[in-house]
Every structure is written in structure tokens, then in C-alpha cells.
Amino acid sequence: MENRLQHIFLSINAKQLILWVVLTHVLLFLSSSTLAQATVKNETIDLGIHFGFVSIEDFPTTEAIGTYLTFRATEDFFLQLNYMQAGDVELSAAEQTAIGAYFTGEDRDFTHYDLLIGYNLFQGEVFTEEKTTNLSSLYFVAGIGETEFGGESRFTTTLGLGYQVALNRNTILRLDLRDYLYKTSLIQEDNTTNNIHTSVGFSYLF
């Protein structure tokens, strides 16, 4: 597991980092008007890390790790930047029955980043044994981004559901289910794929 995580972090190339910086600037631009009116301690931004699995269509399920930055525009709406990578994806069934891998090296890393708009569908409270109250919410997200896999870079639509609960004033636990939809020609020509990503994450609110 440790070697796989090291491979994921080391395989992030300059292009991905540049695009990540660009997406970050987009988020800051969209939120600048609201931030200008905010107080120093308004807790509208959280930064987190998540671990999980991504089920790539026609390929085996693979461990994934990522990070996200969330900005709460209002009580109901939020913006979120996401970066995720699954390293060294194993052979597909088609590759196993053929002469070998269709692609190798860094092309076997599945990389995805997007900018999402989220809406809190239901908000409530969770009561613990210590009789404390923790805020929670069920939310929907949608947005666009890019997926790199098998030597392809594809425009991607993201749809998803998530649940979050505040563990304390500054720590949030998230459970997410995302579907990355994009067209690929790796196995079939111009085939629209659904790639399911499930994850658990922790973020710090500041």
C-alpha cells in the first residue's frame, strides 16, 4: 500500500500541477466577491484528503487517493475543486486475452480533476452519546473536468452524491459517490463510459 501511494504522488506531472493551479484560481475568482464581505473567522473554506476506490469501466477496481478544496458560497450552495489519482491500473479483460497491455508506464495511472457546484439537499443534526450535536448534510454535486488515462485526455462530466458530518468545530467527515462520464477509444471506438468513485475523506474547516 505504501509503495502504491508513493507511486501516485511521484507520478503527478507538471501539466497536471499547472491545470490544478488554474482551477484553483477559477475558484478564487468565483468566490472573491463573497470573501470580500466575509469576516476573518467565518469558516467558509475547508481543505481535505480522501481515500477510496475507482471502478474504471472495462478495467479492474483500483485504489485511489485525492484532495479537495471546498468553498461555501451560501448555506445551501458550495463550490469544490477535486484532484484524484489511481496509480498502476491492472490489465483489462481485453488485455488479458490479447498479447498484453495496450499501454504501459504513466499511461496506466488514472488521473481526474474537476470543478463542481454542490447543493445541500437535506441538512440535519447528529446526536452523540456525549449529548453533543454535530451538523450533517446530504448533498448533490455536478460539474466538469478532465480525465487522463491510457494516453488520452478526455473532457469529463461529474455527477455525485455525498454525506458529511462535523466531528467537531473544525473537522468534517465525508462519504462520497461520484460518476465520471467521458468518451474513450481504449477498448471500443468513441465509447461513453461510467467510472464510479467511492471515497471517505476528512477535511479541516478554516
Share of helix among residues? 10-25%
Which strand order does the major sheet show? 1-2-3-4-5-6-7-8
Count of DSSP strands = 8
Largest sheet: 8 strands, antiparallel, barrel
Rg over CA atoms, rounded to whole Å, is: 18 Å
Q: How much of the polypeptide forms β-strand, as a percent range?
A: over 45%
First-last Cα distance: 31 Å
Shape: elongated
Structure characterization notes:
The chain has 206 residues and is of the alpha+beta class. It has helices spanning 2-10, 14-36, 93-97; strands spanning 45-55, 61-72, 77-86, 110-127, 133-149, 152-166, 171-184, 191-205. The relative contact order is 0.18.
Which descriptors apply to this entry?
alpha+beta, 3 helices
Write the layout of secondary structure elements.
Blueprint: H1 2-10, H2 14-36, E1 45-55, E2 61-72, E3 77-86, H3 93-97, E4 110-127, E5 133-149, E6 152-166, E7 171-184, E8 191-205
Antiparallel strand pairs: 1-2, 1-8, 2-3, 3-4, 4-5, 5-6, 6-7, 7-8
Brief summary:
With 206 residues, the protein is α+β, with helices and mostly antiparallel strands. The protein is built from 3 helices and 8 strands. The radius of gyration is 18 Å and the shape is elongated.
